[in-house]
Design goal:
The complex is a heterodimer.
Chain A: H1 2-26, H2 36-39, H3 43-58, H4 90-100, E1 106-107, H5 128-150, H6 153-158, H7 163-191, E2 195-196, E3 209-210, H8 213-226, H9 244-256, H10 258-262, H11 267-279, E4 303-307, H12 319-325, H13 332-335, E5 344-345, H14 348-351, E6 363-364, E7 384-385, E8 412-416, H15 417-429, H16 437-452, H17 466-476, H18 483-489, H19 523-528
Antiparallel strand pairs in A: 1-5, 2-3, 4-8, 6-7
Helix pairs in contact in A: 3-5, 3-7, 4-5, 5-7, 7-8, 8-9, 9-11, 9-15, 11-15, 15-16, 15-17
Chain B: E1 34-44, E2 47-57, E3 60-62, H1 64-69, H2 72-76, H3 87-91, E4 107-109, E5 112-127, E6 132-147, E7 170-179
Antiparallel strand pairs in B: 1-2, 2-5, 3-4, 5-6, 6-7
The chains are: A mainly alpha, B mainly beta.
């Protein structure tokens, strides 16, 4: 009996030892990797995380450039989706789908890593350029959803973050929610009915549901209105970060297009938000040719929100690096780079929108033919442009300029006052209330005066028509990722009313199926998410 | 064998009038449904002879080398001329669209019979005034492959042929001196 008790004690002692040993062993955290709890343990950690969200607007991954070419080794979008990392950043993908698909540009090359079928409007659900833009937007949304989850009141409290630090993080959350609403606007505009996930859908539980375009509009609208009190007043935030004016600008843009998105016009609301921005003290920058230069971060008079680029700290082959290099024929001495890639040219129909004296196209014509007889291979067919130049106003390199001449310092304005004037004028013409045609004419003539350098290009009230506005938007916002949305709003994107070279794959241009007003949801996502229904026609 | 295919022509499998991802169907499997192996060793007097044969049947491979670079635009569509697959000479595909990647044209029966190893040996016997014995041998590895697969090697474990390191054929001579 004694013996048995002894054995029992020994056994339970051993068991206890094993159990307690186990407990400690199971407490391990990875020693060779970062975990969320470590990253978000301090207020600085939260700032680093919001910085990644902003950085992902500019960069294809954490590394970006690799001097040995192409792959930086840490891309956000896998090679299997888009084979060239230089194409996987946000702006280059958006430019392909918003500008290359229109009269604004054609692309010379057509190998595996080029944007195939986009200008010819013959894309399908396996098009990798389309997939790249889609997954980029969802990458941003996934980052932001997690940031918002990590910033919940419970998480802040459990990490001991209180007071001014917690207030700061609430501001970050509002900015993150803006950037998410912005990405959902991109998806709503390009794909119509994308899958929909927010911070309330934990990763790995269930599969995302699809949202209808009109419902997504309501979500974006409500988010943008809800976050306004938590955003900094116009021009009061750090450069490159979101403030209330950016929020109002996106609202104005979605209201202008509300009829396309939901069937219900919201032009009065568009005017309301244009007025708020204009009253916040923005003014047109005096010289149009200084808008897209290496030191255009100085243009805070006009710019509302930008993607900042830097020749040293954000090296990639997308973004404004592409916009400065891609135009065919432009010599490096003019573009402030190590030379043209020979890729992008402009259709003659778009060039013809610009009258003599209008400086905005900044077309490059030496050795270039006006008419785009050939789309592929012939980089001299079609005028080029030097709108994006990687030099400062004085003609010097930027402070962080890349000595090799590869990477750009030009910031890209996502929203600027010029567009707000145009939204105001169009909304007035389309019957919105809260504005008047006299003010609209005044705003348009401000743009015209800047464009011509004097009042020789100014128009009279009878010239101010909707067709004029569409053309003026083309002139003012060339290559600024608005053109496809504009042509759709005027019902000229897929129809035969307006034809440009190689629209629909023929030289003289032809109307195409109206299904091309939306891009298809990539087949890779369709096959992994049974909730998704493809856009009609694809 | 000359196979012809028309670029951009796909079957509307579900007959709904649209060629899209709904027309995809389940293809073939990458795993074989039969493995065979045969090895032998013969000795006759001072000679020895042996080989190893191995076969695999009804394993299908997607020839991603052909589908990826077997098109003209890959050669001339960039700012400089690149190498492409000779499959272009068969298909004449230009590759202005990227539809071809999902074509089952590139799915091939990669059944094969391989001789992995062949060896011949001869025992010379006592040499150097009986101070040593000598054995000579010759071996070949990866002797031959019998297959209808048109790519480099039909033995692709995951069924997608795009990143294969070629197996070398190795000839080796052996001289074994054994001092007593």
């Amino acid at each position: 009996m004694k013996n048995n008790i002894f054995k029992l004690l020994l056994a339970s002692g051993l068991l206890a030892a094993v159990i307690s040993g186990c407990t400690k062993k199971l407490d391990l955290t990875p020693t060779n990797d970062l975990t969320a709890d470590k990253v978000y343990s301090t207020p600085e950690g939260y700032k680093e995380a919001i910085a990644k969200i902003y950085l992902a607007m500019a960069m294809p991954g954490n590394v970006g450039n690799n001097s040995s070419g192409g792959w930086g080794g840490s891309p956000d979008i896998p090679k299997e989706i888009l084979s060239d990392e230089g194409n996987t950043d946000f702006l280059r993908g958006l430019w392909y789908l918003q500008c290359l698909s229109t009269d604004e540009a054609g692309w010379t090359y057509h190998s595996n890593t080029d944007p195939l079928d986009i200008h010819q409007m013959q894309w399908s659900s396996i098009n990798q350029t389309v997939a790249g833009a889609y997954y980029r937007s969802f990458f941003q949304i996934t980052l932001i959803n997690d940031f918002i989850r990590q910033s919940s009141d419970d998480n802040l409290a459990s990490r001991g973050i209180t007071g001014a630090d917690a207030d700061n993080i609430h501001h970050y959350v509002a900015e993150a929610r803006f950037l998410r609403a912005y990405q959902y606007w991109v998806l709503m505009d390009l794909f119509g009915n994308p899958p929909f996930v927010t911070e309330n859908d934990p990763i790995g539980v269930g599969i995302p549901k699809q949202i209808k375009r009109a419902d997504l509009f309501n979500y974006i609208d409500s988010e943008l209105v809800a976050i306004q009190p938590d955003l900094a007043a116009p021009k009061q935030n750090e450069y490159g970060r979101v403030d209330q004016a950016a929020d109002w600008a996106l609202l104005a843009r979605i209201y202008l297009n509300a009829e396309v998105y939901t069937g219900k016009p919201r032009y009065t609301d568009a005017i309301t938000y244009c007025n708020k921005i204009i009253q916040a003290g923005y003014s047109l920058h005096t010289d149009y040719k200084e808008l897209m230069l290496a030191d255009n971060n100085l243009n805070t008079d006009e710019f509302i929100l930008t993607i900042p680029y830097d020749g040293t700290y954000t090296q990639s082959y997308g973004g404004t690096t592409m916009l400065a290099h891609a135009p065919a024929g432009v010599p490096g001495s003019l573009s402030g780079t190590n030379g043209s890639w020979g890729c992008a040219r402009i259709t003659q129909q778009f060039v013809s929108l610009f009258a003599q004296g209008d400086q905005r196209g900044q077309f490059y014509t030496d050795g270039q033919n006006l008419v785009m007889n050939s789309l592929l291979d012939v980089s001299t067919d079609g005028y080029s442009t030097s709108k994006f130049r990687n030099v400062t106003r004085t003609g010097d390199p930027a402070p962080h300029a890349d000595p090799q001449g590869n990477f750009s310092d030009i910031d890209f304005p996502l929203f600027r006052l010029g567009e707000i004037y145009l939204i105001y004028a169009e909304s007035v013409l389309r019957g919105g209330e809260g504005g008047d045609k006299g003010t609209a004419l005044d705003y348009i003539n401000k743009l015209r005066t800047r464009a011509y350098g004097d009042n020789s290009g100014n128009i009279s009230s009878s010239d101010l028509t909707l067709d004029f506005i569409l053309n003026e938007r083309g002139r003012e916002l060339m290559w600024e990722c608005c053109r496809r949305t504009d042509l759709i709003r005027f019902n000229e994107f897929t129809t035969g009313t307006y034809l440009w070279a190689w629209k629909g794959g023929v030289q003289s241009g032809t109307g195409v199926d109206s299904k091309y007003n939306l891009y298809p949801i990539p087949s890779t996502d369709l096959s992994s998410n049974p909730n998704l229904i493809q856009n009609s026609g694809y | 064998m000359i196979r012809t295919a028309i670029e951009g022509l796909f079957e509307d499998v579900n007959r709904d009038g649209i060629i899209n991802e709904d027309d995809k169907y389940k293809g073939k499997q990458a795993d074989p449904n039969m493995f065979v192996g045969f090895s032998t060793n013969l000795t006759y007097k001072d000679w020895s002879f042996g080989f190893v044969l191995r076969g695999s049947f009804n394993n299908y491979v997607y020839n991603n080398v052909y589908s990826n670079i077997g098109r003209l635009n890959q050669a001339i569509g960039g700012p400089f001329i690149s190498n492409i697959s000779s499959n272009y000479l068969t298909t004449q595909f230009k590759g202005t669209t990227d539809q071809q990647l999902l074509s089952d044209y590139y799915l091939e029966n990669a059944s094969f019979l391989k001789m992995d190893n062949l060896n011949v040996g001869y025992n010379v016997g006592q040499i150097l005034k009986n101070k040593a014995t000598l054995q000579l041998s010759a071996t070949v590895q990866n002797v031959f492959v019998i297959t209808k697969y048109t790519g480099l090697d039909p033995e692709i474990s995951n069924g997608v042929d795009n990143n294969l390191y070629p197996r070398p054929r190795i000839y080796a001579l052996g001289i074994n001196l054994h001092f007593q």
